């Protein structure tokens, strides 16, 4: 036998702990499903021990045995529980962990005996001031042993009787399957809350539909300028979305002076007829290289309507309207082509929004920006 601890411990609320997970359990969690109410072991990796005195000092002794120790006749209340450490760091702790003492216990499964003497006397005193003699004392004995149900070995005090009866009113702790299901629900709830916060940051107070969330492209940029329009785009059929995409591509190219170029005009005609884009638009990099080598469109500098810093080349802003309008997803095609047209118009972007609203969607003016 080895004595691991033998000293006075200051208690609050009549509680002392042994923990190996650096967190003290709640009372009802620690005693859930137990027959005894003095030593709670239902929370993995922790022991929750009740004392008679509410506030003050008690004598506390902890022993390590190789096998079950004999029970001294002086102990009035005795219970046994099982305990499996959750880490190699095992400590005796006062309430809220304001004082802790390491315990040199091996990392094995234990059977634990909690013995008490003078619990009623301690409870009647309620508070033991410094310098006053203690009323109750306790012994905690550990020995290696397989897990088995807790039990009340000896009952004498009214305090122990009260806590035993309380423990037996508590429901059993959740099964591993129930814990896993609860953790899964909690994980889903956290993910849901995180998604709501992210949606609010990106979309405002109106969450997007799954269709809008998945569409990608420049949907957020367009939604920041006219959210009602974006929602309306998602509601119309694919044929109208294609028509809006082709219209927006032509609007952008006309504004930037690209529509009549011999290599751009065929692409706009192809969009109007639902055909594949001709070269060089099958490769956006090639299309931009062609644009950079063509000096016919004048270089016009515009301001981004979304407030992006720095000047923007108007003709380079217009070209993505053509490639965007050919996207395989008709909604994304409409969104990307329309956003490129909006950027191409710069400070006059409301013209584009008003025309698409009046011609294709609402039959009215754009929303206030």
Descriptive account of the structure:
With 369 residues, this protein is α+β, with helices and mostly antiparallel strands. It folds into three domains: 2-173, Competence, DNA-entry nuclease inhibitor, ComJ (Substrate Binding Domain Of DNAk, Chain A, domain 1), CATH 2.60.34.30; 174-207; 216-361, no CATH class. The chain has 13 helices and 13 strands. It has helices spanning 27-31, 119-125, 158-167, 176-203, 210-215, 219-225, 227-235, 238-256, 265-272, 284-293, 314-325, 330-345, 349-361, and strands at 2-11, 15-19, 39-40, 46-50, 56-64, 77-83, 91-94, 100-102, 110-117, 137-144, 151-154, 301-302, 312-313. It has a six-stranded mixed β-sheet, with no helix packed on it. It has a five-stranded antiparallel β-sheet with strand order 3-4-2-7-8. A two-stranded antiparallel sheet has the order 12-13. α10 (284-293) runs antiparallel to α11 (314-325). It is rod-shaped and about 105 Å long. The termini are far apart. Mean pLDDT is 92; it is low at 364-369.
SSE layout and pairings?
Layout: E1 2-11, E2 15-19, H1 27-31, E3 39-40, E4 46-50, E5 56-64, E6 77-83, E7 91-94, E8 100-102, E9 110-117, H2 119-125, E10 137-144, E11 151-154, H3 158-167, H4 176-203, H5 210-215, H6 219-225, H7 227-235, H8 238-256, H9 265-272, H10 284-293, E12 301-302, E13 312-313, H11 314-325, H12 330-345, H13 349-361
Parallel strand pairs: 5-10
Antiparallel strand pairs: 1-5, 2-4, 2-7, 3-4, 6-9, 6-11, 7-8, 9-10, 12-13
Helix pairs in contact: 6-7, 8-11, 8-12, 10-11, 11-12, 12-13
């Amino acid at each position: 036998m080895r004595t691991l601890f033998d000293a006075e411990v200051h208690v609050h609320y009549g509680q002392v702990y042994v923990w190996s997970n650096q967190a003290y359990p709640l009372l009802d969690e620690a005693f859930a499903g137990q027959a005894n109410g003095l030593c709670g072991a239902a929370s993995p990796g922790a022991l929750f021990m009740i004392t008679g005195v509410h506030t003050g000092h008690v004598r506390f002794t902890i022993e390590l045995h190789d096998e079950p120790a004999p029970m001294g006749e002086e102990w009035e209340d005795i219970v046994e529980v099982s305990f499996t450490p959750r880490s190699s760091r095992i400590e005796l702790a006062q309430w809220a962990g304001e004082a802790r003492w390491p315990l040199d216990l091996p990392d094995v499964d234990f059977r634990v005996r909690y013995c008490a003497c003078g619990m009623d006397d301690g409870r009647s005193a309620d508070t033991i001031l410094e310098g006053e003699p203690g009323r109750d004392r306790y012994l905690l004995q550990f020995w290696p042993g397989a897990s088995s149900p807790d039990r009340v070995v000896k009952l004498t005090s009214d305090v122990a009787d009260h806590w035993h009866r309380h423990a037996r009113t508590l429901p059993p702790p959740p099964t591993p399957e129930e814990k896993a299901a609860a953790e899964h629900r909690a994980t889903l709830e956290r993910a849901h809350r995180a998604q709501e916060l992210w949606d609010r940051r990106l979309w405002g107070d109106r969450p997007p539909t799954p269709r809008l969330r998945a569409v990608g492209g420049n949907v957020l940029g367009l939604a920041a300028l006219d959210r009602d329009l974006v929602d309306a785009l998602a509601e119309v059929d694919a044929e109208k979305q294609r028509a809006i995409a082709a219209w927006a591509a032509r609007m952008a190219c006309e504004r930037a002076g690209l529509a009549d170029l011999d290599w751009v005009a065929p692409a706009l005609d192809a969009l109007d007829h639902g055909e594949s884009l001709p070269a060089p638009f099958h490769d956006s990099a090639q299309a931009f290289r062609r644009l950079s080598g063509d000096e016919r469109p004048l270089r016009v500098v515009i301001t981004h309507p979304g407030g992006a810093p720095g000047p923007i080349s108007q003709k380079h802003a217009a070209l993505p309207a053509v490639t965007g309008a050919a996207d395989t997803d008709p909604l994304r095609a409409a969104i990307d082509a329309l956003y490129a047209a909006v950027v191409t118009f710069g400070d006059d972007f409301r013209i584009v929004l008003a025309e698409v609203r009046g011609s294709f969607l609402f039959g009215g003016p754009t929303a206030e920006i």
